[in-house]
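Re-run with default settings, no changes from the original entry. Doing this only to confirm the output is reproducible before filing.
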Amino acid sequence: MTIDPRKYARLANRIVVKAIEAEEEYDRMVAAVEHLMDKGEGRLSPEESALLETMAILVQAYDDRHHPLPPLAPNEMLAYLMETSGRTARDLLPVLGTRGRVSEVLKGKRSISKEQAKKLAALFKVTADLFI
């Protein structure tokens, strides 16, 4: 994916991409992220995709500082990510193996291995630390 620096700069200047320091800036950045996401991932230009990723990182950094989530057990985090992404237990079969294992992990009766955590992180596009 090749990015045209001029196109990227024009997009970034319209939004003023910088570290978020106030709630108003946060709201503006979230609105810009949502606008790009509404276009659909497959319909974004390379410049828009790069800008979306940058803005998501800035929004996440602000959230981490000002709106930290309470720590969740790995199975609770997995359930939350499944719910918010529309995934089902069936979607976890390639990662966890059997339906029984999926059920045990979701109920907290079985822990998630480091290898499974890495695969889940890739599936949900999050850090593996959430599952360990």
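The chain has a mean pLDDT of 93. The chain is about 65% helix and 0% strand.
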